[in-house]
Amino acid sequence: MRFMMFVLTDPVPDEPIDDSDVDHWVQELDTTRRRLLGDVLDPSEARGVRVRAGERLVTNGPIPGATDTLWGFDILECADLDEAIDVAARHPMARNGRLELRPFPSS
């Protein structure tokens, strides 16, 4: 099963993380081929796009008023939801941010 894992900041982190912790998580999952793709996203380059009453509305940056920011993503290949949860729980941002898993069909 494939899962999209969204990596979000959290206004109340548990503990600071070291970039090398994330690098170790990435290397382990890349080696075992459970991480198919992933990257960090630049919130300063974000654009919100909506159409209301036929008018295109574009905003700069993350959604105004949001308490957390989408920081990155990973696409995981796991046997089931339980394995995906285990993988996500080992990600350093599980302690410093929030992770959201969403299953999607394999192509």
Automatic annotation (TrEMBL):
Domain YCII-related: residue ranges: 35-102
Protein name: YCII-related domain-containing protein
Pfam families in the cross-refs: YCII
Family, similarity comment: Belongs to the YciI family.
Entries under InterPro entries matching the protein: Dimeric_a/b-barrel (IPR011008), YCII (IPR005545)
